[in-house]
Amino acid sequence: MWGLTSLASFDSYVGAIECHKRALIGADKDDTSSYQALAQLHEQIGEVAEAAAYHRRCIDISQRAGKPVQTYSKNAIELARYEMLKGWWPKGPLPATIYPEMLPDGPQPISSFGGNMMLAKEYLEMISTSNCAEVKEAEDLLRVWKKFVVE
After folding, report:
1. FRET pair for 124, CA 20 to 30 Å: which of 46, 83, 98, 143?
2. pLDDT per residue over 44-56, tens digit each?
């Protein structure tokens, strides 16, 4: 399910998560490295909601510190993807990818979706107009968003 081969592998991820959480206790308030690591670890064990929370924290810290969008664009892409998945897949645990069968039959009013679809759009537009490495991915996701969401 998570690409893990054994319970021991799962336990090593959980151990790494606990280690990074402890590292946050004395960390610099503008340092996002432990939050980045926590987001990736939670993604690897399929805990997408927890990963999204850490991606959001990285974005908040970076924006508060006035860092350029390139420093948090990967986090913004992942958070936008999470919000879109949450909006289109209200049936239980979220998969890691948007699959065609998850998409609505056609354009739907934004009020019919779960998730924060406007936040997803905001982040995707911000990245697609930047010079980040993730521009193409943001444009692709934004195109899907615009195809299925009516504001």
Report:
1. 46
2. 888 889 999 999 9
